[in-house]
Hints:
This protein is of the alpha/beta class. Helices cover about 40% and strands about 15% of the residues. The protein has an eight-stranded mixed β-sheet, with helices on both faces. A five-stranded mixed β-sheet has the order 9-10-13-12-11, covered by helices on one side. It is globular. InterPro entries: Cys/Met-Metab_PyrdxlP-dep_enz, PyrdxlP-dep_Trfase, PyrdxlP-dep_Trfase_major, PyrdxlP-dep_Trfase_small.
Amino acid sequence: MLGLREGTKVTIEGFDEETGAITTPIYQTTSYVYPLGEKYRYSREVNPTVLKLGEKIAELEEAEMGVAFSSGMGAISSTLLTLTRPGSKVLIHRDMFGRTYKFFTDFLRSLGIEVDVANPGEIVEKAKVKKYDVVYVETISNPLLRVVDIPELSKICKENGSILITDATFSTPINQKPIVQGADVVLHSASKFIAGHNDVIAGLGAGSKELMTKIDLMRRTLGTSLDPHAAYLVIRGFKTLKIRMDVINSNAQKIAEYLQEHQKIKAVYYPGLKSHPDYEIAKRVLKGFGGVVTFDIKGSMNDALNVMTKLKVILPAQTLGGVNSTISHPATMTHRTLTPEERKIVGISDSMLRLSVGIEDVNDLIEDLDKALSSI
């Protein structure tokens, strides 16, 4: 659903004017009585609970309008199907979530959309070479955690008349506000850090009223609409997002530094490390370096999978962004849809693990990793 921010007036969650409830009610209804409910009509189109969530993401991203979707991929598909058409030219980078990458390279290309792919760290330079209708980036890439210089890229996009769409799931509105830095649209898998408890699937988008109105109409047509109860859970997650991210940022930095010195670790990928290729960019565009730490162990795929099974506090699971730490194996989980050749180009090895750091005591997490690594 949509939420508007007009001028300097920002909508926030207050209390329900009809009942006095201090939390947003869950409007679990399909339709509304005419003429009283004419504003909403049908919950696939507009629902009061979901509407409030749209207002919240618009407020946090300092955008004119926010839209909520049934999932992160729902946000991506609805947005791209709105802003592209046969003959459109789109630029993406290769190091992104596997399902997103396949949506561009398989599905959009099948519609006659031209999709160019930049290698890791090269999208800013590639955007200068040719005029694109849309440039799509993950602000922090999955799983290599490359950091895109959004202010610089936005300047190039504005000069070329390109729409810059950012997926800021890994950075969150706490660590980065892409709209403020010049992006046209920001998207989130709200299932991750924003909701924060691994109990809801949802997507969010924010941007100008002009663009988001069009995207919202596509959402209504595609049916990528969010359930009101799920919207309520995401709104609840927003209330603790700043507190959680402060702890997660701190924990992840300490764990990255620990892993970097571990004798059984070959490489650590984390924007907060001076060894990271985008460290200087990260310091400039991010307020915090995020909760994901990716690392390569010295060993085989079986060794990496063995480490996952030996962990006791950290859970092996294909998700991220929750209060509890989780770990996954990109080659066989999040990026399994990529061919071995594609994974090699991106830099995803069979011995790579992606750790999503939670809010547990950091010493417990380090001890858990240390014991699991000692098994290989």
